[in-house]
């Protein structure tokens, strides 16, 4: 068999909670980003439903190595936590993370990514979206618990995320602010008062792509276009270095 160079696919890692985990569903924001990057890189979903930044900081080294950073080949990482951290401590102590610790956790995640060869300019933080309390309270009642999140608290965590991103030298997608900009009806972006609706997924995909596109525009199309493959000697087209 002829010797050839392995094809290395760069990775974009989506790291977050349930809003990331479910983003690969039909019309999800993660699926939209993956579609735009087909044949350029692998979009890897590392969304973990119910997780907060405290747990995220602990488990991140389990799937990104800092030992052989050149092997990671990570083109970009999104860090999307806060919707669980901002739970009210007296109503949901298991998921709640104090505001200052949340900020420190985000900065620690950034420091670890740097040690793994992912520079700050390749990291995009995403704030929690707003919370529509009447809709989310209905979901809580169905689960037998009182309302455990307030939009004002989500806003405090969003602000902390923005500040942490700035201190780390990374971009941030401030969903909490953008979805409520100019007094617009942000409830259309939420399916249950907390998680994203189809419109919310479209909103995230559109705004996130604006930040990702500039970072990933130089990624080459991996392997030749089918019309460029030499039918008489496909090996000469398919096994050559691009």
UniProtKB/TrEMBL annotation:
SUPFAM superfamilies in the record: SGNH hydrolase
Molecular function in Gene Ontology: hydrolase activity, acting on ester bonds
Keyword Metal-binding belongs to the record: no
CDD domains with a match to the protein in the record: Isoamyl_acetate_hydrolase_like
Transmembrane segments annotated in the record for this chain: none
UniProt entry keywords in alphabetical sequence: Hydrolase
InterPro entries: GDSL, Iah1-like, SGNH_hydro_sf
The family this protein is said to belong to: Belongs to the 'GDSL' lipolytic enzyme family. IAH1 subfamily.
Function: Probable lipase.
Database matches in PANTHER family: ISOAMYL ACETATE-HYDROLYZING ESTERASE 1, ISOAMYL ACETATE-HYDROLYZING ESTERASE 1 HOMOLOG
Record protein name field: Isoamyl acetate-hydrolyzing esterase 1 homolog
Organism: Amphiprion percula (Orange clownfish)
């Amino acid at each position: 068999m002829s010797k050839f160079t392995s094809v290395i696919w760069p990775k974009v890692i989506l790291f977050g909670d349930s809003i990331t985990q479910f983003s690969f569903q039909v019309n999800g924001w993660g699926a939209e980003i993956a579609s735009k990057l087909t044949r350029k890189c692998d979009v890897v979903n590392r969304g973990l439903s119910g997780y907060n930044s405290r747990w995220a900081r602990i488990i991140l080294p389990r799937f990104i190595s800092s030992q052989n950073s050149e092997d990671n080949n990570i083109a970009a990482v999104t860090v999307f936590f806060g919707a669980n951290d901002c739970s009210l401590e007296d109503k949901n102590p298991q998921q709640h993370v104090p505001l200052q610790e949340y900020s420190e956790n985000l900065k620690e995640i950034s420091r670890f990514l740097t040690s793994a060869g992912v520079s700050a300019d390749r990291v995009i933080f995403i704030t929690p979206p707003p919370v529509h309390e009447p809709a989310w309270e209905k979901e809580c009642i169905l689960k037998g618990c009182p309302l455990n999140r307030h939009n004002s608290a989500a806003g405090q965590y969003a602000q902390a995320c923005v500040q942490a991103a700035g201190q780390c030298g990374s971009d941030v997608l401030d969903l909490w602010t953008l979805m409520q900009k100019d007094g617009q009806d942000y409830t259309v972006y939420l399916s249950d008062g907390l998680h994203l609706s189809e419109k919310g997924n479209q909103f995230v995909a559109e705004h996130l792509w604006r930040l990702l596109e500039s970072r990933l525009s130089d990624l080459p199309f991996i392997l030749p276009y089918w019309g460029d493959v030499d039918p008489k000697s496909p090996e000469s087209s398919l096994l050559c270095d691009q």
